[in-house]
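Encode chain A's predicted structure.
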Amino acid sequence: MKRFCLLLILLTLLPSMASAWWSDEWGYKKKISLDVKKLQQDGVTVPEDAFALVRLHTGNFTYFLDLAEKGKDIRVLAEDEKTPLKFYIEKLDPVNEMALIWVKLPKDIAKSAEPSFWLYYGNAEAVDAQEAAASYDVSQVLSYQFDSSNVKDLTANANNPSEVTASNAEGGLIAGAAVFQGSQIIRIPTAPSLQMSSVTGWTVSAWLKPEQGHQQNSVLFQRSGTAGTVTLAIKELTPYLEITNAAGVKQEFAAQSSVAVDAWHHLALVATTDSFIIYINGVIAGSFPVSLAELTGDITIGADAVGARGYSGMIDQLAVYKTARDANTIKFDVDMQGTGSALLAYGEDSTPDSEEGGESYIVSTLNNVTIDGWVIIGILGVMFVISFMVMIVKAIVINKIQGENKKFQQAFSKLGTQDISKLNSEQTEEDEEFDESPLLFSLTTEDGSFAGSSIYRIYHVGVEEMNKRLMKAAGSDVSQSLSAGAMAAVKASMDAVLVRELQKLNSQMVLLTIAISGGPFLGLLGTVVGVMITFAAIAVSGEVNVNSIAPGIAAALAATVAGLTVAIPALFGYNYLGSRIKVISADMHVFVDEFVAKLAEEHT
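Encoded structure for chain A:
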């Protein structure tokens, strides 16, 4: 029995152990999963030195304002939530709500049952833990990502350029990019770490976006050595390789496919012991059985060594490796970095409090609502409160009036035409007191037995009008009978009170019509703005997949739900109260006609 109890306790603790929070000092975490099955469908496996590009935007990330300055609180952990992973931030823009983070994936991530890693954040006191230089494998000797300020090597080799005339600009494939206009160049001085030997092989790769009509014979990459020169160029939008030996003999090898203008393409040149291979978008576009001895000179990007044959367009993510990368690794980089990348799935943001029971879909959706969406929802919330207050108060008032009307009608139905004046005389004092406080008549019964009855107020005016005329007739020698004109005047006075009573009954009902018609339109406005922001963020980040779109769209639709939540109860309440008001209106019209008819019968 004791063993059974111990086992039961352990089983109870397993879920909490599995979801243990890495550190209580961090307020949020997000699970990011790698779609290995999609890679397998493309015939690609996860390389050992792979980077994952995490693209955060309003569609998949909510708490940009909770990030510490420059993202110093960001931590990346392996699936076990214990092992830190190396990472660095290429761009973080909390104002425009986007971030680009490079994460060095674990070597065995593909073997996991659920390949994933965790992003922790939300600690204002944290120190920066980025390790850009340490993140790169020793085989990568140069990495230019062209941020908006300068061009520098992010690897530990510090192979920075000696000459840069190309400009850096936003609008690159991932963040910034180098812009060439036909006469710009990036020159990289020779260094021991930049050794390019056919014995070990080497690789040069980059993303390029050529311009229209300026690629007659443009150099993308060139380097020379004692044995000759290697040039990767583009002619009429077709990449080709130039090999010039020490004797000046040139060989040209054109790729089997070309690139399109104003579109991003991944281009890689791989040198092995006996051949050169050109890859376009991760696919072999040409393999040429030629080799060249070690290259030791300066590297030029965008033009040749003398600054001629300039390239026009943009270049992003320039990388140099001192090994020959295989087709699988190159294709993985293309799939991960490309604008249509869908290899990463972003989970919901969670807190320590939400770990035990998880977060509901409604809460997670609301967490993704943007500030403009909350403004719309806030306005709708005010409309919701006002419409419910109107419906509640109106229902109380109408119930009160209907009850008092029924009570008065029962009393009035017992009276004959001879007893009308008696009823009026009994209520004279209360009626006068009631006339002194008209604004409170529907909320009190202290002014008389029928003070809350709208029909009684009509009756009261009719009796007063009759008394005036009867008293005038009593002071003269004429008969107390009244003319048809006098009866019409009495009815007109009663109709005037009836109209005023209807105005009071229908007051504030316009607020319900505003909620009915305006609520859905405000909600639609919030949805349209939210969808617009979501797609704008996706366009900036370059990530297009359902995991990035769905949270933003769901949050945008929350505004429409809020609008309908305001309109639907208001619609039901308006129709119900309107029908009750019509009943009271009918009772008042019937009474006026009945009362005037009895008076006419008695006094004409």
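The chain has twelve helices and 22 strands.
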